[in-house]
Amino acid sequence: MVSQLSEAVLDVIADALVDKGYIFLPELIPHPISQVLLEKIQTTEIHELKAASIGRGAEQQLNPDIRRDRIQWLEEQSEPDSLYLDLMTQLKDGLNRRLFMGLFDYESHYAVYQPGAFYKKHVDALKGSQNRILTTVFFLNPDWTPADCGELIIYDEADNEIERITPKMGHFVIFLSERFPHEVTKTQAQRNSIAGWFRVSNSMHGF
Ligand code: OGA
Ligand code: MN
C-alpha cells in the first residue's frame, strides 16, 4: 500500500496553520489504511495497552482524575503502523517545505478510551519544557453516534470553545500544540484514536 498526500491538500493544511493555527479534515487518510489501523486496534486486548500517564520524566504519573485512556506507541518496524507513519512523514516534509517549521520527528500512540473514560482539558506542550510543536489526532470509530459522546473539544487561548470534533472514522485534526487547550468528554462507547506530535529537535531549542 503506497499512498501519497497531494500537494493541494498540503497547501490547504499549511495555509490553515498560518491563518488560524488548526485544521479539521473529515478525511485525510486513505480508507484502506484506516481500515487496517482499525483492525489492529480491534484485535489488541485492552490489557496489552498501558494506562496513560501525565507529565514528563520524573514528573510522570498516573492520574485517573485527569485521563483514563490506555495507549500503545506506534512503531516504524510494524505494519500497519508504518503506513500511518509514512503519511505523517509526508505531512512533516510538506509542512517544512512550505512553512520552514523545522519539524524533526513524530511520536504517536494508539489510545483506547473505554466507556466512562475521558481526558480533562490540557495543553500538549508545557511552555518551554517540551519540544512538541504540532499535534495530530486521528479517529477510528466506524459506528459513532451522538449519544456516544467522547467529543474532542478544542478551545482558543481565551478558553472559548472553537471546535467540537466527533471521533468518527476518518476524522483528522491538526493544531499547534502550545496554543490550544483541548479535552475529551466522557465517552459512552469504546473510543479509538491515534494522537501524535511533531517535534523539533532538542538541539534546535538549545536545551
Ligand atoms: C492527547 C489527546 C485526544 C484524543 O493524547 O494528548 O489530547 O482524542 N488525545 O485522543
Ligand atoms: Mn492532548
Secondary structure topology:
Layout: H1 7-19, E1 22-25, H2 31-42, E2 50-51, E3 53-54, E4 61-62, E5 70-73, H3 81-99, E6 105-113, E7 119-122, E8 132-139, E9 152-155, E10 161-165, E11 172-176, E12 182-184, E13 191-199, H4 202-205
Antiparallel strand pairs: 1-11, 2-5, 3-4, 5-6, 6-13, 7-12, 8-11, 8-13, 9-10, 9-12
The structure holds N-oxalylglycine (OGA) and manganese (II) ion.
Mean pLDDT: 94
Calculate the terminal CA-CA distance, rounded to whole Å: 39 Å
Structural class comes to alpha+beta
Which spans have pLDDT < 50 for at least 5 consecutive residues? none
Sheet having the most strands: 7 strands, antiparallel
CATH class: Mainly Beta
User: Helix share of residues?
Assistant: 10-25%
Q: What is the total domain count? A: 1
The H-level CATH homologous superfamily, spelled out, is q2cbj1_9rhob like domain
Radius of gyration: 16 Å
Protein name: 2OG-Fe(II) oxygenase
Keywords: Dioxygenase, Iron, Metal-binding, Oxidoreductase, Vitamin C
Domain Fe2OG dioxygenase: 99-200
GO molecular function: ferrous iron binding; L-ascorbic acid binding; peptidyl-proline dioxygenase activity
